[in-house]
Amino acid sequence: MKWKAALQGVKGALATARQEVKAKQILNRPSHLTSSISPSRSRMFIAGTAAIVVLGSTATLVATQVAHTSSWLQVYRSGQYVGLVPNQSNVTLGMERIADGYGIQFQTTSVHENIPSTYNWHETASFPTQAVVIQLDDKPLVYTTSKPAAQKVLNDVKQALAPKVKGASHVTSQFVGHVTVAAVTVGIQNILQADDATRLLLHPVSSQIAGRSSSPAAMLLKSSDESRQNPLQPLLTVQSVATVTKTVSVPYHVTYVDDDALAKGDEKVVAAGHNGNEQDAVRETLENGKVIKSQVISRHTVEQPVNEVVHRGTNSGVASGEWVWPTVGTTITSPFGERSLNGGEFHPGVDIGVPIGTPVYATNNGTVISAGWNSGGYGNWVEIDNGGGITTVFGHMSRVVAQSGQTVSKGELIGYSGDTGEATGPHLHYEVRRNGTPVNPMPYT
Predict the structure, then answer these.
(1) Can you give the residue ranges of the G5 domain (predicted)?
(2) Hey, which residues does 184 pair with through a beta bridge?
(3) Widest CA span of the chain, in angstroms?
């Protein structure tokens, strides 16, 4: 039974030694940094030696167990135990970069532990820190240092996105959705200062904070709702409701009156119109400064509009618009005015040289006064009253088509050219009279 007692002594010595080592680790005094051998380590050495001497097989079992246990680092920050990370160079180098960038002091102690596969050592490697999260509908948008900082961020974002509405008598603004702040513990890389957090919420793409482009804070953008994936849009929406007074022009109406004294198609303004105006109180709903809804809630007329009165011609027998040339020929054989031949007699129209049988057309709308033979030297002629004191005469025709009393339209066939009456050869005599006096017909062609 002596070997059992010896074994119990070994186990007790080992347990005591482990407890003392663990206490040193918690106090940030790693045992491997101690220069002298403490009594506990001496006892551990003696007990271990005794165990090997007494039970060599037991020592082999302990060595095998250590060989199959992973190597980890206990991490301390400001003397406080943080957690475990794998004892790997890439992990420690990454932690050192974070520590340098954020001014963090940390220490580690090597241990051999069996850690469950579900243990999340990444939280330890990112130095978990107390912070405040700004959330939209319970989804995190950005982390900042404190609740006052978070409130400053939200106030600055609201001020930036709420519009300055010109002429508004009352404006209220609020965030769209359920915006909250809450205390959390996150890796220090996630935490932004208030100004940086504001820029991230307002300008998701352009807010590339120096040294943090690959940090979890930047990765927040990738986990936003699909409806917020437009990189040009802020991550928060501010809805504003403003009551605005606007002066609105009220258009006048046009009243048309038929007038048989005017040619069909002509219009004449007899009373000019002008717009009125009114003042409207308008409730506008805006999102991030853009109007999405407008509603008139009251209206006050300042000046009534004055309607315009326009006479619209209905007389198809009255000249209107441009005049047309009376035939297809364009050669003037005798112009309007005094003739050099025949004793300088006055020629009241123009003679257009065309062969007998060339079509002759009305040069404008009008009513036929006379059609047929004229004994005054015009031969077969057509005389048309074009309205406004203007009459047109077509003489020396071979045949007349129009009839007295007929209403003719501009360009309508009225007969054919010839050499009847006092004519020296085939031509069309075209004449224009204003109030019975012949005038130069060229402006009426």
Answers:
(1) 235-316
(2) 131
(3) 173
Q: Which two tokens stand for residue 62?
A: 């302990």
Q: Is 334 helix (H, G, I), strand (E, B) or coil?
A: strand
Q: Cα-atom radius of gyration of the chain, to the nearest Å?
A: 54
Quote the CA–CA distance of 38 and 28 in Å, as a whole number: 16
Q: How far apart are the first and last CA of the chain?
A: 146
Rounded distance between C-alpha atoms, residue 143 and residue 220, angstroms: 10
Q: Which structural domains are found in the chain, ordered by start?
A: 2-125 (no CATH), 128-164+174-225 (no CATH), 241-315 (2.20.230.10), 332-444 (2.70.70.10)
DSSP state of 165: -
- Alpha-carbon torsion 185, 189, 195, 201, what sign? negative
Dist CA 410 CA 369 (whole Å) = 16
Q: CB under 8 Å to 29, separation ≥6 — which residues?
A: none
Token representation of residue 216: 């979890």
Q: Whole-prediction pTM value?
A: 0.50
